[in-house]
Amino acid sequence: MAFPRPGGRSVVAAVALALALTGGAVVAGGEGGSDRPPSSSAAVAPDALRGADLDRGVEALQSHLRDQPRDSGSWAALGTAYVEQARTRGDPSRYRKAERALDRSLELRPRNDAGLAGRAALAAARHDFAGALRHAQAALKVNPYSQGALASRIDALVELGRYGAAARAADEADARRPGVPVFTRYAYVRELRGDVAGARRALSRAVGSGSKGGDVAYVATALGQLAWRQGRYGEALEQCGRALRADASYLPALECRARAWAGQGDTGRAIRALVDVVARAPLPGPLVALGELYEERGGPGDAAKAREQYALVSAWVSLARANGVNADLDAAVALTDHGTRAERKAALRAAKAEWGRRHTVHTADALAWALHVDGHSAEALRYARRATATGFREASFMYHRGVIEGAAGNADAARRWKSKARDLDPGGEAS
User: Engineering a disulfide at 317: which of 71, 126, 327, 365 sits with its beta carbon 3.0 to 4.6 angstroms away?
Assistant: First the structure.
């Protein structure tokens, strides 16, 4: 890995950044160039740096490591920053860089908790949630206060569908290392169990604990996304505006704002905004949303533009898999509605494979809808009911259940669930 030569100020910036990323763990250059063991450390939480700060941080760490190549803490920080770049920019190729940097950290100082927590973040980003849980637990054995490991453990338990355990892990993390990464995860655990008010309270608490621009942008966007999922589009726009005042380049806030405009029926504005988002980060979620908006608008050339977005999803899935990402759920969600017949069959196989690995509300809904589209509505029904069993308020899940209940001959249930979907998202599929 070739790095530019650092100047004095960039070295200082790199060390300061690595200290922030690893909770004070970085001790650069002990006698003979070896690292001293830290008194406390934590790999960067997946949301610790964002936007331009993330890019500057990566550059500073690269420069620092050219002069201090045996700094295990900075290698861990760099690896985890690469994970965040890959995750937010839609560039899975960075996961290979992350893996090499984290391997180097652990080669220099085996079982250092920053490196292990970084591996947990990498495994989670690649959708290897069992691996993420294993690495997070290993890091917590070394340092029970590692914020990165505490956060990754919650993420892994959520994505494995172990919501009760995730709630207990969130409580434990809050007791050990309260802060923005923990509060936002606690909020999502509450939302998954149907407690929207509790989620909003937790996010409001996070707002009070974060003063940096990146923290404000992250938490305000989370509040905006929560409002958008409840059909409160005006509130979503207000929160996204707050996020963008803190960081004008923060992509999740730009995407959330576009989706809120779409919810309000401002299709043209939403399309223009999402075109900008996918140009920067061609991820499946915004690509599918943009394609569906083109289809909804139905103007000259819009059908071809929609197909282009869905083709990009297929390309992203291939690239992700080539870089060690399990993209089965992404493929199932995107291609069930928008793929060719062969791709829809592949989407069903992917949904079944993902259900075999983890039983979440999202995998249950993906499998239910893929089965229904393939003509197996009776089999789909139990998964649609599983997807709506926790109280999670997601309009698409409710609509899918309504359609599947109707196909299975349950007319009253079909009307009830479609009505719930309309109430939650007046401009959505059920309208």
Answer: 327
